[in-house]
Design brief:
Blueprint (H helix, E strand, L loop, with lengths): L7 E2 L6 E2 L3 E6 L10 H11 L3 E8 L6 E8 L3 E2 L2 E2 L14 E7 L1 E8 L4 E7 L3 E4 L3 E7 L5 E8 L7 H6 L3 E6 L2 E6 L2
Antiparallel strand pairs: 1-2, 3-4, 4-5, 5-13, 6-7, 8-11, 8-13, 9-10, 9-12, 14-15
The structure holds 6-O-phosphono-alpha-D-mannopyranose and zinc ion.
């Protein structure tokens, strides 16, 4: 039997209480994601392999949905902002929701047919990620980017396509501002 419960979420740190799991991704685990490989190796060596993002989850056995937070640190690798890996769901019929709590960024999406879309991430914007649209969150601000996500436990992750082909677009720092450019 699973009982109802209130879960505290700290919108500026992404802390979830109670939580049932968490993981971090460091720069060295994101090789092949950022376009400037030399800058990545340099950043790993010089900055001591910093955490790029952290995922904290609240999941209860017997439920079809779960939720949690993702916190993407501010930073760049070369001229490319810190971001998540990006993925399709293994289950092509399953959507997800990202509700931004803190900071600012860009949610980049790519459909299975190759269309791209962008949703601004800022406090108060709840992004609907339709089934079969890959998604990657990018922190373009100076603060942590914190968002609450709600998904289906069965959705799973499919990283292959994005690792191989990318998201079609990249978000780069140019002359002090974020630019969304085609990924040639
Ligand atoms: C969100 C959710 C998670 C995902 C995480 C990091 O929190 O969509 O399912 O794992 O972002 O994204 P990725 O797995 O693409 O690195
Ligand atoms: Zn997802």
């Amino acid at each position: 039997m699973v009982f109802p419960e209130g879960v505290s979420i700290d919108s500026s740190t992404g802390h979830v209480s109670p939580e049932t799991g968490r993981y971090t991704k460091r720069l060295s685990e994101l090789r092949g994601i950022f376009h400037d490989r030399t800058a990545l190796e340099e950043a790993v060596a010089v900055r001591g392999d910093p955490i790029v993002y952290e995922v904290v989850e609240y999941k209860k056995e017997g439920s079809d949905i779960f939720f949690g937070t993702t916190t993407v640190e501010p930073g760049v690798v070369g001229n490319e902002y810190y971001m998540t890996r990006g993925h399709f769901h293994a289950r092509r019929d399953m959507a997800e929701v990202y509700y931004t709590q803190h900071g600012s960024g860009v949610l980049l999406l790519k459909s299975r047919a190759g269309e791209t879309a962008v949703v601004e991430m800022k406090r108060g914007v709840c992004a609907f990620i339709p089934p079969d649209w890959a998604h990657r969150s990018i922190n373009t601000g100076k603060d942590k980017l914190v968002f609450v996500w709600v998904g289906n436990v069965a959705a799973g992750h499919d990283y292959g396509d994005i690792l191989e082909k990318g998201m079609s677009k990249r978000v780069l720092l140019r002359e002090g501002v974020a630019n969304i450019v085609d990924d040639a």
